[in-house]
Amino acid sequence: MNRVLKKRIPRELKANFWRWLALLFMTAMGMTVVVSVVGGAENIITGSRECAEKNHVEDGEFSTLLPLWSEQEDYLRNQGVILEQKFSVDINQDDGSVLRLMKNRDEINLIAVDEGSAAQKSGEVLLEKRYCEEHDYAVGDRIRIQGKEFEIVGIGTTPDYDLPLRNFSDMSAESFFFGTAFVTAGQYKEILADGAQGAENYTYAYRLQNGMTRDDVKEKVKDLLTTFVTAEDNPRILAAAGDMMMNRVVGLLAGGVVIALFAYIISVFVIHQINREASVIGTLYALGVKKKNLLAHYITLPTVISLLGGGIGLAVGFSGFGMPQQMKETYGYFSVPAFARIYPVYLIIYGIILPPVISALINVLVINKRLSQTALSLIRNEQRSSGLGKINLRGGSFTRNFCIRQMLRELRTSAGVVVGMFISMMIFMLGLNCFVLCRNVGIDSVNSVDYEYMYMLKFPEESFPESGEACYAESLSITKYGYTLDVSLIGITDNSRFFEARPAGSKNSIIIGNSVATKYGLGEGDTLILWDKAKTKEYVFLVEGICDYSVGLTAFMDIRNMRELFGKTENYYNILLADKALAVDENRLYSVTTRSDIERSSAIFTEMMAPMVTMLLSVSVIIFFAVMYLMTGVMIDRAGFGISLFKIFGFRPREIRTLYLSGITAAVAVSAALCIPLSKAATDAIYPWAVA
Q1: pLDDT for 394
Q2: Three-class SS of residue 93?
Q3: pLDDT score at 283
Q4: What pLDDT is attached to residue 167?
Q5: In the prediction, which pLDDT does 504 show?
Q6: What is the pLDDT of residue 17?
Q7: What gap in Å lies between CA 635 and CA 272, rounded to an integer?
Q8: Distance between CA atoms of 411 and 563, rounded to whole angstroms?
Q9: What is the reported pLDDT for 54?
């Protein structure tokens, strides 16, 4: 008898070939998206970590106003610290970009050379990878730096500039306008001796050994520090891996949900097939066939289709059309080497095993009850109608009443449509949220900036131009959603020309920008806890208001109270704002940010997320139409006998379509009215976590 049942499987496949092909396509497409996203994320995460360890990424770094004495460096080394200078000087190029010039590394943050080699002699330079891509530089080309011609002998990356930000506070990386360059130690000294344009930055990288901790290092140099940043808190280090962590988690969870949806749709088909063949099944029961054999028979084809769909999706996801395409976005933004492609075992198991397992489980749960009926009831094809089908519909036209009863009879099919619509709408809303967020970052950031120039100062002068406005900024941190991010606390005067915030005269109260309020769900009267990473000190502030300022995460405080809180002199400042360029000594500058810089930086997010947004919107539309096509097909099949009777009684095709499609059309309309706001609310709830 099992042999007879097996022969029925090819006949069922042939009879409903296009339906099973559509399900195979949907499963394969869903798994392709999951494998592409998760596989690409896994490649970036694993590759970044292995590259960072191979090239001795720093455990942290600190900057000083003046270089350490050789005795101070030796003291740290003797205490169990591997220490290396990573001094740098920023040099303006003729095209408006900035090259951060450094000497070759020997122990920490070693250069990963993609092409060519490191600089070996005077007149040679190795350039950072993304800067070369943006400027179309290749090995063998020549570049002018500080008025001198250099040959580009190498192109590479360093683990401490995984995300090539010029400043920690930058909103995004702009590789056309900023890159790193490495020359020999002798060449570096020569450029400084010739009079470099900018001031030299004295930064030291360290790696820990012999039981030393970051706190130990900080304690030993605390009186000399201007900044102290651990690798975990450095936005430049392992930034690509951090960006991909959420892709991996969300991709795996979303894949499970989509596969469950497809499995439910398959179960609707199987139930329809069982109802159609109920008398045959009852006869087989009467002849001694066991339920477990029939159960195995009816879940075989769905399980095989799911297995094939998962396998095809896995193969396409691992191919050049899948993972590499997802990784292009990372390679086009982060400065990382081209990683060797890996194929995670857990993802192979996920792609091949999960679809058939979920399909088999859902089908067993759904069809077990139907197959548990007695042989006689199956032979008679007895089907229990729901109480909803017996509702007494008084009044109204025949068409209206028939459509209502038809819709009630097809509740299982309608449920599939509703679930499919909800899933597709959530995917759509996720893509829409990505697009709106990126667009609004650009619009709000530019609209909230009233200054044209922001000068970050190392050594502020006692007096400053009258056209400038002095402010005092400190970089503090906040930890939420499992991530630690920097918040710029800016002290301003009560009559600031460039900020609308008007903080009160209290050392414990602040006004937060709307970006902080939105990201962390804060309102007036709430408490915000920030901490100083360098001094390991915590500050508790009362949110007294919210102002319109969206550039990064920013909060405002009265400058006099802020100076007192942080122990500064009564006239101290480290920022100058102006609506036109000021004559500021470059040796005193950390950086200069212009309004156009902010506009360019904020526009990058839209470009970065465009492929992801396109994919999400496209997939949501395909899933919706596929579910509608498949579910409507099942409904029409189930109504085949009734449709034939209507034709006998002379109903025209248009009238029959009205009778059988109006109900599902109304169900789709009602479902849309519910699913659109519900999916938007659900996506808005999880989105802050997804982009934390």
Answers
A1: 67
A2: coil
A3: 81
A4: 83
A5: 79
A6: 83
A7: 9
A8: 68
A9: 94
Measured distance CA(306)–CA(353) in Å, rounded: 9
Give me the pLDDT at residue 468, please: 86
Cα 72 vs. chain centroid, distance in angstroms?
43
Q: Say what angle helices 398-409 and 653-690 make with each other, to 10 degrees.
A: 50
Instruction: List, as one string, the DSSP characters of 267-327.
Output: HHHHHHHHHHTHHHHHHHHHTT--HHHHHHHHHHHHHHHHHHHHHHHHHHHHSTTSHHHHH
Which stretches of the chain score pLDDT less than 50? Answer: none
Rounded to a whole number of angstroms, the distance between the first and last alpha carbons of the chain is 57
Q: Which residues pair with 487 in a beta bridge?
A: 476
Over the range 543-565, which residues count as b (16 or more CB within 10 Å of their CB) and which as e? bbbbbebbbbbbbbbbbebbbeb
Alpha-carbon distance of 59 to 229, in angstroms, equals 9
Q: How many Å is the maximal CA-CA distance in the chain?
A: 104
Asked if residues 38 and 248 have their Cβ atoms less than 8 Å apart, the reply is: yes
Q: What is the pTM of this model?
A: 0.76
**Cα torsion at 518, 524, 526, 530 (round to 10°)?**
60
> φ and ψ at 454, to 5 degrees?
-125, 120
> Encoding tokens for residue 592?
């200069």
Q: Are 678 and 421 in contact (CB under 8 A)?
A: no
Query: β-strands 142-145, 200-208: how paired?
Result: unpaired
Q: Tokens in use for 69?
A: 């004495």
Rg (CA), the chain: 33
- Give CA–CA dist 472/454, Å, rounded: 12
In DSSP notation, 512-531 reads EEHHHHHHHT--TT-EEEEE
Tokens of 398: 């025949």
Quote the pLDDT of residue 113.
95
Rounded to an integer, what distance in angstroms lies between the CA atom of residue 19 and that of residue 525?
58
CA distance 190 to 300: 75
Question: What type of residue sits at position 592?
Answer: V
Cβ distance 430 to 683 under 8 Å? Answer: yes
Which of 446, 531, 483 minimizes the C-alpha distance to 688?
A: 483
DSSP 572: -
Which of the 8 DSSP states describes residue 332?
T
**Length of the chain (residues):** 692
